Amino acid sequence: MKSRIILLGPPGAGKGTHAKSLTVTMQIPHISTGDMLRDAVSRGTKLGISAQEYMQAGKLVPDHLVNGIVAERLAEEKKGFLLDGYPRTVAQADYLEAAGEKIDAVVLLDADDDCLISRITGRLSCPSCGAVFHKKNKLPKKDDICDSCSGELIQRPDDNETVVRQRLNAYHAQTQPLIAYYEERGLLCRVDGACDVEEGFEAIKSVLGL
Ligand code: AMP
User: Fold this and answer.
1) Is the bond preceding 87 in cis, omega lying within 30 degrees of 0?
2) For residue range 180-202, what is the model confidence (pLDDT) as tens digits?
3) CA dihedral 108, 85, 185, 67 (to 10 degrees)
4) Pocket of ligand 1, candidates 37, 69, 132, 178: which has the most ligand atoms within 8 Å of its Cβ, to mutate?
């Protein structure tokens, strides 16, 4: 079974949503650098303090800060992993390769910018359990309350349109080159990130042979 997987794609393409389902189906951990960095920011650690200004501006956190936390985390994982939001630059992918981390598949979820902007700017996130809702397409049963854990839903500070556009610019300039990088290594599987969640999940299972 393919068990060392990278989920690649722009913000809002569904990496986090699908990772949450895949982690249950495959029984391997979901490792999201965005979640790890948000946790560091909320705890006010040295890393969080350094990362915060980049995240608020929709820019990528410098490679040396992110590589360190991923290396530590992957060293703990023996059964496999779903990497969500890492690598995001060619330097990060080179770092992963140099660290000897073998990758079985890279699933690229893609969608056009207009679709991603409307998805992200309507997104409501649960900081407690990570569940995601949408102001139009996936309303919680009770206003602003998470269906899964009853936590209070928030709009992530970097989910407003100005910051989302900057995040998309960062994706196109710094992350998109990874498509060719993993295509050359014969690892890339493409899945439509614009379709509905169930369809997308079936497509991912199919490319992973699940
Ligand atoms: P995400 O939750 O994956 O959309 O990430 C939120 C923010 O965290 C991004 O806009 C970046 O500022 C930062 N971030 C997450 N992962 C990385 C990474 N691999 N490299 C650099 N910055 C990252």
Assistant:
1) yes
2) 999 999 999 999 999 889 999 99
3) 180
4) 37
Which class for 63: exposed (0-12), middle (13-18), buried (19 or more C-beta within 10 A)? middle
Core vs surface per residue 118-145: b (16+ CB within 10 A) or e: bbbbbbbbbbeebbbbeeeeeebeeeee
Distance (Å, whole) CA 66 – CA 84: 13
What pLDDT shows up at residue 137?
86
Which tokens go with 74?
């992957």
Q: What pLDDT digit, counting tens, does each position of 142-182 carry? A: 999 999 999 999 999 999 999 999 999 999 999 999 999 99
Residue 197 CA neighbour count, 13 Å, CB half: 16
Nearest atom in ligand 1 to the alpha carbon of residue 84 is 3
Calculated CA dihedral for residues 13, 15, 18, 24, nearest 10 degrees: -170
Say if ligand 1 is within 6 A of residue 125 CB: no
Q: At residue 200, what are phi and psi to the nearest 5 degrees?
A: -60, -40
Helices (H), the chain: 15-26, 33-43, 46-56, 63-75, 90-98, 113-121, 161-170, 177-184, 197-207
